[in-house]
Each structure stands twice: as C-alpha cells, then as structure tokens.
Amino acid sequence: MVRSLASCPLAALVPLLCAASLAAQSSNSPPPLPGAKAEPAAEPKPWRLQDRVGGPSWLKVSGEQRSRYETLDHEYRFRTPRAGATPPVQGYSDTADVLALRTSLLLEAKGETLGGAVEFLDSRQYGTGENGFIDSTMVNTFDLLQAYADLQLGKLGGGKHRLRVGREAVDLGSRRFMARNAFRNTINSFNAIDWQWTGEGQSVRAFWSMPTERRPAAQDALADNDWDADDQSLDTQFWGLFHDRKLDDRTTAEVFLLGLDEHGTATRQRSLFTPGVRVFRTRKPGNFHYEAEAAGQLGHSKANTSASSPLLDHRAAFVMGALAYTADVAWQPGLQLSWTYASGDQDPNDGDNERFDTLFGARRFEYGPTGIWGAVARANLNSPEVRLLLQPSKVVDVLFAVRPVWLAEERDAWTSANLRDSSGRSGKHVGTQYEVRLRWDLLPKSFQLETGAVYLAEGDFQDRASSGQGQSSSYAYVQCTWFF
Predict the structure, then answer these.
(1) CA–CA separation, 321 vs 384, rounded Å?
(2) Pairwise CA distance, residues 379 & 405, whole Å
(3) Cβ atoms of 210 and 238 closer than 8 Å
(4) 469 Cβ contact partners less than 8 Å away, ≥ 6 residues apart
(5) Cα 5 to the center of its chain, rounded Å
(6) Nearest-angstrom CA–CA distance, 195 and 164
(7) Among 363, 369, 406, 368, which residue's Cα sits nearest to residue 384?
(8) pTM greater than 0.85
(9) How far, in Å, CA of 341 to CA of 369, rounded?
C-alpha cells in the first residue's frame, strides 16, 4: 500500500489544498479593533479553474477530483455459486483496503442555437491484491466520458425542444434504471441521439443509444489500471420514452418506457421492455413527503453469459414505496420508512426468468455504498428500511439507516454475493444492514468531506447456502472531493 500511495500524488494533494485554503482564509482576515463590532465572515469565493483559464464567455471549464479510501472486513462475495451439493468457492481475500481515485475535466460550450460538451474521466484504484474483488465499476483509466453537440430547435407546442447527438452521461427520473453514477468510481455513458421537449411544468424525452462498453474488462488489466479505449456496438442498443409533469408545486408524476436489446454472443442476450410509473412529493420541513415507483419487465434473457445457456422468457416486476416526515425544528430530523420489492427467479428449471434487471441504474442513494461494498442490489430483493436524516447545520448532514434484507425468491441468487441455493432450503434471510454516513461541506461548493460505515449482520441464507462459510461483514470509507 505504501508503494500505491506514493504513485498517487493526487491522493495527498487534495487534503493539502484544503488545509492551505483554510489557512489562507484565516490569515487574510485581520483581527477586529478593540471595541469594534465584529462583522460576519464573508463566505469564501470558490476557486474555479475557469477564472484562471479565462477564455470566451461561451466556453466554461470545470472539473472534480475525488479520493476515497475504502476498507472491507470479511468479504461476503463468492466466485462461484453453489451447484447441487458442491460448496461455493469464495476465492477472494477476506479483507480489502483500496484507494479509489476519480478525476474529471469538463468543457462546455453554450450558444443560442448550437452548443455541446466534452468531458474526460480518469478512474483508478490502488490496493487490490491478486485475490481482491475488482471489476469495471472501479477502473476506467483516462477516457472520453462525454462528447456531444446540442442543437436548440426553437419553439414547439408551447415549449422548446432540443436535439443532442453524441456520447452523454445523464440521470433519468429516479435514477433507478438510468443514471450518471455519483458514488461509483466509474460512470455510465451512452452514445445517443437524444431529443427533449420542455414546456411549462412538464417535459418529454425520447432517446436511442448504444451504451458505452468500458474497457479493459480482464481482472489483471483492471488491477494494474491498464488503459484501453472505451467502445460501443450495435449489438447493444438502449432506448427510452420519458414524460414528467408537475401536479402541484411539490408533486410530480412520471411515466416511461425503456427498451434494451443485446445480440452479443458473450452477453445475456437481453431483449427487455420496461414500462413504469413514478409519483413523488419533495421534502419540506414540517410536512410529509413520499415516493412510489413501479415497473414491469417483459421480453427474453439468459440466466448467465454462457454460450450454452438457453434463452428464457423474461417476466419481472419492481415496486417501491417510501413515506417520510421532516420536522421543522433544529437539525431538521427526518424519519423515512420505505419498502422495496424486486422480483426473483421462482424456479431455475421452468424455462422462465423472473429476476428483475435494473438496467443502467444507480443504487448507492437507496441501498448503501457500492465501491468494494454493494451488498444490496435491485434484483431478487424484498427489503424494508428505516432511515433517520439529521442536518446539524447548512453544511453538515448525518444519515442512520437500518435495512433487513430478504430474497424475494429463495431458489434464486443473492446476486451481489453470487450465492444461490436452487433447492430453496437455505431460506430467504440474507441479513440486516446497518449504515451511518456523515457529509461535511468543509468549503461550500469547493471541498466536501464524507465518511461512512456499514455492518451486515449475517442471516440464515448466508450460512446455509455457503455450507457454513457465511459471516457478518463490515465496510468503512472516507472520501474528499474537490470541485474546481
């Protein structure tokens, strides 16, 4: 680990920059004269690369650097699932310590009719050993995240519409099925033709895309942070129709239809249609707020990427609901109760696949940290949660969450762990996840510090399906993000 840290000067640079900025703010403020009334401290102006670069008014330059240290004790994942009476093989190191770095640079051009953006992203990790878990959600060494042109098409039907062509990284609706990943070290992007109409209190969006294939994919190449150009292929196409409308000043309704079509021989050959609807009411102190979302899924898919795996009929469903109240008192405590159901495969031998597929969605905002953690996924899941959110000040918020985790179907897999008992005799209770998180905008709009910890108390399914190898797991992280 010493060698890894030494080869990553950015990891040490960001905290030093923060300390230097704080020191500069102190030294630049002269002490008040005796008897004089102290003036309130002015909020420091964020340091911006744009101010140093200058350039034309239509061009904006910005970026972000994030350094995160993660540690995991008692790995919960297995390399191979249980097959009949054969115990699964864990195969990963029992502990892990990783430094994850993510740096982005964004150039945006805005004109009355024509605009666009180019964004570069460098995501890498240090510390994953020979037997450590690693995949393409953690590493994508210096590549093109976005490169698109925006054409403003003018007025249409009481609103305005635009056309975007190129590679983009976007959030759609709740972010459960299409998202620009925030916590994850790499970010989804799509090579798209994307049309959007925006009117008073509503919008309509239609897009067709080829999802970007992050490269490399081999374990040893990822562990070494090797570079390979990202690509896209007509073998994988993703499209969608999306409409949202404000029902009042705090309530919004959404309806959508998403389609995914895979033809690659080394894929699950998914051909899925995902219609859905969502209604939510935004948070306001002294009031209740809520969210409800439901989606169905129809089509065909394979249970895995094996060439010999048969193509199955796919029928799945997802439902979630949340009700919360935020008190209008000091610290604005908010209590939220929620429940998530994502269907699982009822019978591995019936020629059908009922496991819900989250497509290109994010999950940190709902199920806890991902990174080298990510124990809860939006597949074969039946799980309530109790969440308490506190805001001691404008720049600090604290989260406490408790989430019991059950499988929706006992004969399907705990997908995050790659663990399955097709007999169903291991039960459904995966365990209970406890989470705490603190975020502090140390320098508002410039530097944020975040830290958190998770503990997954072992359930009966872990122990039985793994032939006694199950164990409680813990994870912690600390990260600092510099916006420039």
Answers:
(1) 10
(2) 12
(3) yes
(4) 78, 87, 88, 90, 463
(5) 26
(6) 6
(7) 406
(8) yes
(9) 19
Handedness of CA 270, 303, 182, 119 (dihedral sign): negative
Torsion of CA 405, 409, 412, 418, to 10 degrees: 0
**Given the structure tokens 């024509």, which residue do they identify?**
114
Specify burial of residue 120 (Cβ count, 10 A radius: 0-12, 13-18, 19+).
middle
Q: Is 116 left (phi over 0), alpha (psi -120 to 50) or beta?
A: left
Topology, domain 2-17+49-483: Porin (2.40.160)
Nearest to 94 by CA among 481, 484, 477, 475: 475
How many Cβ atoms from other residues are within 10 Å of residue 397's Cβ? Answer: 19
417, 427 in Cβ contact below 8 A? no
Quick check: 376 and 405 in contact, CB under 8 A? yes
Query: Taking the CA atoms of the chain, what radius of gyration do you get in angstroms?
Result: 24
Cβ–Cβ under 8 Å, residues 211 and 333? no
The set of residues, in sequence order, having a beta carbon less than 8 Å from that of 35 and lying 6+ positions away, is none
User: pLDDT of the chain along its 484 residues, tens only?
Assistant: 433 333 343 343 444 444 434 434 433 444 444 455 555 666 678 889 998 888 899 999 999 999 999 999 999 999 876 544 467 888 899 999 999 999 999 999 999 999 999 999 999 999 987 789 999 999 999 999 999 999 999 999 999 999 999 999 999 999 999 999 999 999 999 999 999 999 999 999 999 999 999 999 999 999 999 999 999 999 999 999 999 999 999 999 999 999 999 988 788 999 999 999 999 999 999 999 999 999 999 999 998 888 888 999 999 999 999 999 999 999 999 999 999 999 999 999 999 999 999 999 999 999 999 999 999 999 999 999 999 999 999 999 999 999 999 999 999 999 999 999 999 999 999 999 999 999 999 999 999 999 999 999 999 999 999 999 989 999 999 999 999 9
State the pairing for strand pair 59-73/251-262.
unpaired
How far apart are the C-alpha atoms of 301 and 260, rounded to whole Å? 11
* Distance from C-alpha of 273 to C-alpha of 267, rounded to nearest angstrom: 17
Sequence-distant (≥ 6) Cβ neighbours of residue 195 within 8 angstroms: 161, 162, 163, 164, 205, 206, 207
